[in-house]
Specification:
Helix content is about 40%, strand content about 15%. The protein is globular. The chain has two domains: about 200 residues, Metal-dependent hydrolases (TIM Barrel), CATH 3.20.20; about 60 residues, DNA polymerase, domain 1 (Orthogonal Bundle), CATH 1.10.150. Helix 1 packs parallel to helix 2, helix 5 packs across helix 6 and helix 6 packs across helix 7. The chain is α/β, with parallel strands linked by helices. Strands 1-2-3-4-5-6-7 form a seven-stranded mixed β-sheet. The structure holds adenosine monophosphate (AMP) and manganese (II) ion (3 copies). Adenosine monophosphate binds next to helix 6 and helix 7.
Length: about 280
């Protein structure tokens, strides 16, 4: 059992609990080292750090940056950076700035397929107005009874190729990794087992990621099947990447994931958290 969890969401992005409550929930479950990694925004980190201190749990600042790479959307987690770094903050603001216009296009795409008036309803689920995303549309469609659960609503309406999916240009890989590094952090490829490309493309991604300064990859993830743990542990080892672990917790009741405690890391790769554990 691993009591390190370096990937979590709050109401600052598309999680359902405020930062303090996610932190307290992880601590109550026995977590010893925790990172809040909201999509494209760091405004939850002050509260999260303060709550973690109150709970006696070591805390690492984090973020999950949306990236467009070739024809794919990737997520790059940043860990252990200075949350006040001006370049990082400006970069994240530029990524967020496209989300509102994208939300309008999502609502138009859904309307064209017979589901009108989703924008206002989706916005109600977005606590942070700059961070409206697909999960907020998903919750709105479930509330309207148009879909049963998160898995179903993505599969039917919001995943790539489905009626409510629209293409969008996020950060470049080099920019996202650069912002994290320049702020003193470590860049990690999030949930690599979820990307829909083959082995060769994965190797090309790892090479390019390392070339622009990336250093880690998630091995144990709530977004991974058990078979992915072994596969990405080997890839981390072979390519000299630090191995990370995170629940990717968003909300209780939307699937089985809970924050704070994870399955063990397979032996082999170097865990990314050793440096913060030593400091804690
Ligand atoms: P966005 O950044 O707005 O495109 O939203 C991406 C988020 O949607 C992810 O971080 C997940 O929270 C959620 N998501 C994406 N695909 C799925 C899926 N198949 N099932 C459940 N949630 C998903
Ligand atoms: Mn999410
Ligand atoms: Mn992600
Ligand atoms: Mn995530």
């Amino acid at each position: 059992m691993l009591t390190v969890d370096l990937h979590n969401h709050s109401t600052v992005s598309d999680g359902m609990l405020p930062p303090r409550e996610v932190v307290a929930r992880a601590a109550a479950r026995g977590c010893t080292l925790f990172a809040l990694t909201d999509h494209d925004d760091v405004r939850g980190l002050d509260d999260a750090a303060d709550e973690a201190a109150k709970c006696g749990m070591a805390f690492v600042p984090g973020v999950e940056i949306s990236v467009s790479w070739r024809r794919h959307t990737l997520h790059i987690v940043g860990l252990g950076f200075d949350p006040k770094n001006a370049g990082l903050l400006a970069g994240l603001a530029s990524v967020r700035s496209g989300r509102d216009e994208r939300a309008v296009r999502i609502s138009e795409a859904l309307a064209a397929r017979g589901i009108p008036d989703t924008l206002v309803g989706a916005r109600k689920f977005a606590d942070n107005p700059e961070m409206i995303g697909r999960a907020h549309f998903a919750r709105h469609l479930i509330e309207r009874g148009i879909a049963k659960d998160m898995k179903g609503v993505f599969k039917k309406f919001l995943a790539k190729g489905k009626p409510g999916y629209v293409a969008h240009e996020w950060a470049t890989l080099a920019d996202a990794v650069g912002w994290i590094r320049d702020a003193g952090g470590i860049a990690v490829i999030a949930h690599p087992g979820r990307y829909e490309f083959g082995k060769q493309t994965m190797l090309e991604l790892i090479e390019e990621f390392k070339a622009v300064g990336g250093e880690g990859i998630e091995v144990v993830s709530g977004s991974h099947a058990a078979a992915d743990f072994e596969r990405f542990a080997r890839l981390a080892e072979v390519h000299g990447l630090f191995a990370s672990a995170g629940s990717d917790y968003h909300a209780t009741g939307e699937g089985a994931r809970e924050p704070g405690v994870l399955q063990d890391m397979p032996p082999g790769p170097t865990p990314v958290w050793l440096r913060w554990q030593a400091a804690a």
